[in-house]
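Materials and Methods. Structural model of non-specific serine/threonine protein kinase. The 592-residue sequence of non-specific serine/threonine protein kinase from Malassezia obtusa was retrieved and submitted for structure prediction as follows.
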Amino acid sequence: MPPATRDGTKENAPRDTGASPYGKAPVHATNASPAPLARHLQTTTGAAPAAPSPKREARTDPAAAALSRTSWRSQNAAEMLQPWERDVVQSPEVQRKATLAQIYFLNHYFDSLRYLADRRERLAQFEAGMREQGYVSPEQQVEQSLAGLRLGDAPRAAPASRVSDDAYRRARQEHFAREREILLHRRAKLRLAQFHIVTQVGQGGYGEVFLARKRDTGELCALKRLRKRVLIKMDEVRHVLTERDILTATRTPWLVRLLYAFQDESHVYLAMEYVPGGDFRTLLNNSGVLREEHARFYISEMFVAVNELHKLGYIHRDLKPENFLIDAQGHIKLTDFGLASGALNPGRIESLKRRLDQVKESDMVYRTPAERGSLYQAMRAHNVRYADSVVGSPDYMAPEVLRGREYGTSVDYWSLGCILYEFLCGFPPFSGAHPDETWANLKNWTKALQRPVYDKPEDLQFNLTNTAWDMIVRLINTPERRYRSLMDVQAHPFFRGVDLARMREVPAPFIPQLESDQDTGYFDNFDDPADMAKYKEVQEKQRHVEAMEAKRGVSDGGRGMWVGFTFGKNWAKGQPAAPAPRSASTKLSTMF
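The predicted structure was written out as tokens:
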């Protein structure tokens, strides 16, 4: 058992830099070469330097030779690998696990150093508080006595104190007990029982989303629970892992933040920050067409959020209004990264390609924008969960994604162009009376994309300005001519006067009216049969998946598939058992 530290816990502190990792003699730097000193003596005295004594030839240690070969091999790893080994190393799964291992150890050591710094600070505050009450610790008495001896003074009696009182010892023991409680709590695994479920706020094909509060910290979160076996059956494991990786990598207010990720035998859990204003689809359904200044505000924030995702090295590929949430201040946050680049199911790509190839030129129905808008609104009213259908809607997806061709970040700009069109027109640019017509419009998008023109006096306000239409066609375009960077967007006249770097300082057009931090008024009520009717198709999909046979060779929930999933330390971040407010600037915060 490792010895207890000064503050009574047994957390291993970092080793001293001069200590051997094997507990033997300290390792020191080698001495400087004596050659300069010998030359100096020869110059000043004229004496020739003594010849070095012959050394006995060192025997070759097999272990040392093997270690040397290993070091050389590691330096030339690329050249030494066999072709099959290179294929393994370059596989996405291995690269992801290697990256996760690096991130894990970096986070582990940073967290350990932060914990040690906090623990020392709590001990210092405890001792300072005891001194204010007139108590002096035995260690401080010894230090004061030694300080007096070093100054040449005669040994002095310890200053009057109540160090021998039982009250000091009891207070010190209580402090150490609180520290041990914090340490034991850090080592405990996260479990669902540590979250109080408030209510359900979401339902998907693979699980549910709950509003939950962590019992020890009081943190409010959106807890997504997903079934392992269903994810394995549907080949959706990569999607969940990609979403987890993006959520852990983000440090920006534009992307939903992950608080914890953990698992049990049958489920994986993602505890994310709770965004109480609901999704943007709900806002669109209630508002219809947006005024141009409001559309400019929201699409600007969406561009910034998507750009933050691109800076992390990911492409979303499935942007739609449902993927944007509204926070308590009315600003945008991007979520739902399951189809981000690197995780799109090849089977789904083939399905989408076949769907497009089956559409013929004659299948396209020419409709006026007004007719298309009316049909889209009617379809939305009939099927509120239209975007969550089993097949999925291509309303906002770029053609190159659906066809499985090579693409870059500009596919997300196509999607944002479709969303901007819907903001200003009230319906997506390629919507049809039914999904098959939407597919046909998308295949013939150059013909289907039309600028709505209204002649009636009461509808003139819905006509697009030339600047807005030009912005839309710069986004809904061929990959070669499409905007592909935030700099291109910022330079367009539609965004004249908009500072994309300071969008969160601009008051939002709509601010959610919340009664408390647990308000779920902007989400569906899962106790209301009318709201639950919207999820009929989702529930049918769940039953269909549950009836499918499990994948061969997977009988344990795919334990190996979830390596590196867990995220977040299990301790009271906000208010530990022994409260100790962090100073505004510490050595640790400066270091990192």
